Amino acid sequence: MGRHWRRADPGLRKKSKVLKRPNRPSAAPRASAEHAGPSEEAKKVALLAAQAGLDKKASEIEIIDVTGKVDYADFLILMTGQSDRHVGAIADSVESTLRKEGFRAISVEGMPRGQWVLIDFVDVVVHVFQSETRALYDLDGLWMDARRVGMIDPASGQA
Fold this sequence. Notes:
alpha+beta
């Protein structure tokens, strides 16, 4: 009976497409994810995203190095906005700033509601939260043991 149903609707498989993550642009595969550091390009994207959030008055910005801990990213960026409109403005700023630098997001989730916006740049995943939502999901606590990366102060050029 199952076979008959599948034959009756051959287009069924075409209706649900799965978005596959593109291959990393860096040519050399990592020999060991635990010993290799993040790519320079990923670090640049992370710092640009954090700076774009800072420019829009995001608070509690954290750059978390998750290299070797997960296989979907090198960095997670966490930041907080004060309202749904503020979260949307921060997310728009991050996306447009990185687009100007030649980095396109492969996915943006959560924009209509503005409680939690996730922007995926392949090696860098940016999370923009309202404070209540950030406290509820507590990604800071989840990644408590991961290394934090300091932002570069534009005035002094120091981290």
